[in-house]
Amino acid sequence: MQVILSHEHADFDALASLLGAHKLFPDALPVLPRSLNRNLRDFLVLYGGQLPFRDAASLPREPVERAIFVDSQTAQFVRGMRPETPVCIIDHHARERELPAHYRYEGEPLAATTSLLVERLARCEPALALEALEATLLLLGIYEDSGRLSYVGTTARDLRAAAWLLEQGARLELVDEFLRHPLSPAQSRLFDRLRAKAEALQVHDQPIVLACASAGAGEPIEEISALAQPLLDLWQPAGLLILVDLGGHLQLVARSRSDRVDVGGLAERLGGGGHRRAAAAVARHGDLAGFRAALLAALPDFVQPPIRVADLMRPDPETLSPELSIAEAETRMRALGHAGYPVVEAGRLLGLITRDDVDRAIRHDRHKQPLREAMRPGPVSVHPEDPLRRLRATMLTSGWGQIPVVDASGALVGIVTRSDLLRLWNQEDGP
Ligand SMILES: [Mn+2]
Q: What distance in angstroms lies between residue 266's CA and the mean position of ligand 1's atoms?
C-alpha cells in the first residue's frame, strides 16, 4: 500500500494536493489529516462522497511501501508506516531540514503545492480527464494559498495552472463560496474584541497594529488566522500582530504587507515560524502581558524604516525664475532635459513648470509672457524625511508628476518624480 499524507489543520492547498497526487499516483491512497479547517469540513460534507479521500482509521491493515507528503515535510504517521518507510515530499515550501536518506524532496517555490501537481497533471500522456468537481477543488487549493493569485510570491506558473483548471471545467461560483467562508459566531466575537483592543504602533516609522484579546471562557476558537485578512483590510498597516489567550496557551498570528516588516523572523524569535509575510507562534506557558512584552521587545529588530523621499530625490535641482519669458524657459529646458522645474523667487518656492506647460503656452503664442503666467502655482512639496506613502498621496492630490522637496526651513533641497517611484518597482514594494 502507498499513502498520501499532508499537514494537520489542513487548508485547501493540502486537500487539493492530496487529490492531485492521487490523480498522478492512482495506487496511493489520499488520507485525510485529523484536523481540517472549517471551510474544508463543510466542503467535504457536501462533496466528499464523490472524492477519493480516506480516513486513517479505514486504511487496510497492510504495510506502507511508500508515503507521499504533500504541502508539508512532516505528517502524522499512519498504521503500517515505519521510520524507514520511503517518503517522497512534494511541497512548495523550501526544504526545512536535513532529510534522512530515504526521504526525497521534490519542491519548487510556487504559491501553492497544488500548482506543482497540476502542472504534472496537465503534461500527462494520454491526456487525463478531470471531473468538474476535481478541477474545482484543485483551483480552490491554488486560490486559497495565493490569495486568488494576488499575494506576492504568486508566479506565472500558478496562473497557468489555474487557467488549465478553468479549461477543465472548474466552477468559480463554488470556489468563491468556500473562499469567502463566513466567520463562525465565536470567531466573530473574537474579531470584535480584537478590533476594539487594537493598538496602532509606529515602529521605525512603520505603522504596525497589535491586537491582543482573550478568547471567551470555554469558547473553542479555531483558525485565528482567518481573522487576519479582515483585520488587515480594516487598517492596511505594514504589519499586523494578533495575540490571543486561548486559556491553556497563547497564539500569535502575524502578517506583513511590506518587505520591510519580517514577521517570519519575529515569530521565529518567539519560538514559532513562517515566512516574511505570514507567520505564527504558540506559547504553551506564560501570560498575555508577558508574551506581549516579549513581542514588543523583539519587534524593532524585524522592522526596517520605510524608504524616504531623501533616498529617492534628485538633490539641488535646477530651478527657473518666474520672470523668465516662456521662450527663454523653453530654451533652458531643452538644454537641461528634465520634465519639470521648481519655480523659485528669492529662495521661495512659488510653483512648478513642466515641459508640457511650456509647449502648450507656445502653441498659444504666449512666448513673450513671463513664466509666472504658465506655471502651476502653489507650495506643493514634501519633506526629505517623508515616507513614500506621503509622496504618493501628494502626487495623487496635486496631479503633479514632479514634487519639489523642501526642508524644515522651507529651502528647496530636491525634486522627486514619478519615474523615481517607477524605478523603485524593480527593487521594492509595500508601504
Ligand atoms: Mn500550501
A: 21
Residue 419 CB: number of other CB atoms within 10 A?
11
C-alpha span between 392 and 430 (Å, rounded)? 12
**CATH superfamily, with its number, for domain 2-179:** inorganic pyrophosphatase (n-terminal core) (3.90.1640.10)
The CATH homologous superfamily to which domain 309-424 belongs is CBS-domain (3.10.580.10)
10 CA → ligand 1 middle, Å? 9
pLDDT tens-digit readout, 85-123: 999 999 999 888 899 999 999 999 999 999 999 999 999
Q: 375, exposed or middle or buried, with CB in 10 Å at 0-12, 13-18, 19+? A: buried
Per-residue pLDDT of 179-190, as tens digits, reads 988 888 889 999
Q: Distance, CA 115 to ligand 1 centroid (Å)?
A: 10
Q: Say what the pLDDT of residue 401 is.
A: 92
Amino acid 426: pLDDT: 62
Ligand 1 centroid, distance to 114 Cα (angstroms): 8
Cα angle 373, 374, 379 (rounded to 5 degrees) comes to 90
How crowded is residue 226: how many other Cβ atoms within 10 Å of its Cβ?
A: 20
Give residue 111 CA to ligand 1 midpoint distance, Å. Answer: 7
Q: Tell me how far the alpha carbon of residue 96 lies from the centroid of ligand 1, in angstroms.
A: 14
For the stretch 336-357, what's the b/e string if a residue is b when 16 or more beta carbons lie within 10 angstroms of its beta carbon? eeeebbbbbeeeebbbbbbbeb
**How much is the pLDDT for 313?**
95
Residue ranges of the chain with pLDDT lower than 50? 428-431
Question: DSSP strand E in 162-263: where?
Answer: 199-203, 206-214, 239-245, 250-256
> Class assignment of domain 185-302?
alpha beta
Of 391, 382, 384, give the one whose Cα is nearest residue 422.
391
Sequence ranges of the domains in the chain: 2-179, 185-302, 309-424
Report pTM: 0.76
Q: What is residue 430's predicted lDDT score, i.e. its pLDDT?
A: 43
How far, in Å, is the centroid of ligand 1 from the Cα of 273?
15
332 alpha carbon – ligand 1 mean position (Å): 58
14 C-alpha to ligand 1 centroid (Å): 6
Q: What is the 415 CA–ligand 1 centroid distance (Å)?
A: 44
Q: Quick one: cell of 351?
A: 510653483
Distance from C-alpha of 114 to C-alpha of 162, rounded to nearest angstrom: 10
Does this chain's domain 2-179 share its CATH topology with 309-424? no
